[in-house]
Amino acid sequence: IHPSVQEALMEGRPVVALESTIVTHGMAYPLNLSMARKVEEIVRSNGAVPATVGIVKGQIHVGLTDEELEFLASSKNAVKVSRRDYPFVLSQGLSGGTTVSGTMIAAHKAGIPVFVSGGIGGVHREGENTLDVSADLTELGRTPVAVVSAGAKSILDIGRTLEYLETQGVCVAAFGESREFPAFFSRQSGFQAPYHVRDEEEAAKLIDSALGLGLSSGVLIAVPCPKEQAASGQVIEEAIQLALSEARAKGITGKEVTPFMLQKITELTAGKSLDSNLALIYNNAKVGSCIAVALSKRQKARRKGNLPQRENMSPPQPVVIGGINVDFIAKAQNPDILGGGQTNAGRVRRTFGGVGRNLADCLSRLGQTPLLLSAVGKDEHLESVLHYCHHMDMSAVLQLEGKNTATYCAVITSAGELSIGLGDMDIHHQITEQYVSQFKDKLCQAPLVCIDGNVPLSTIQYVCQLAREHHLAVCYEPTDENKASKPFLSDSWKALTYISPNLQELRAINRTLGNTLPAGIEYS
Asked: What is the pTM of this model?
């Protein structure tokens, strides 16, 4: 992930994903490069951060440098990369442009909810016989990203494309004054979109609702080409029929059909379709950026408690009780770290951790949506923490005035050995029995309760007592050698179902219980 994109994501600023197949296969060099640069500039000028997705020498990039963008634009051997192509292209170290499908996958994994494209793929004409259906449609059915495009490409069977999107459970909405589903170059396709949003605020509200339901499917916002640059439907249709005939005669099939058709239609319309193509791409970038900004504002308002929380329709959640940390890792460049107040060359990076947060993160990525009980300060780290954890249920986390979010700073040698560690962890003492007991009903219904050693002893004892009374499964993560023994200072440990100590933590527990060590293992 490009540093500018990563920084924006951490700070909760709006980011717009952009595809690169239009660069590698949609237009000739150098027009493709100037188009891509202009699209990124439009995104920036409308308040968002562009993240063009591409494959460079076997590595997925979310956000490209200008040199990488020019490399893909001028490449003669770039591969068109959809879901099915990723394993081969990456394993062979190839470079390529990502389709709508390929870009959606990368955007979702990076945490970007809005993606701007020219037009999606769909069911090809005569697709009922050839079964030539774009992977874009199935991707929209299984990846929760909002795609802003000028509908489906005119060369497709738009009626069947809309039917297929319905089958895949994709929410489709036309953007603007009309419910007419646009046909890429043309504003009219002869088909109505199922739904209609008038502006970016309504679009953002729709996307926010879709993401909140956790349906794991995408949203398609269909934006018509600007009136001034829209091509005549009849002119385009005549060109499509001629191009289709030539494609059939030449035996062109599969993923080669769309690039051939677009190039041929440009020739047959004397460049008018290309003018429309550029206009709709620039317009989509503007509209998509405004939607991303509006969506970001909604999400920030919810995190600050100014919007109602989404209705919870899910089964009982696991509950995780533990710490949230902001970690600063400083790694020296040279083997020897100089003292005496001198500045050492090195790399410093910020990450988000905390044992409780890490457990909740992992459970969230496994689809379990745990409730996290923790505490953070209302300080300069708050917004970044909440955004980084946007995929997690943070609704119950304490946000405390006058307190510092837990931070940890580690200085490590060039060989990776810890030189010194400093921690400000006092806020973990606020994860009290009184606070946790407010969620007794959730705890008693939870299929699993996880608790880490950062939590005060009285809180651990309360949870263990509750577990005994209600037969709850409790997992204890000891955190470190000094905290590992907390449940073992009384009979609380008998309520634990799982524990995950390392060897040092297990030694400490063993010592607390007064047990002898197995032969061959000694206390350090």
From this structure: 0.64
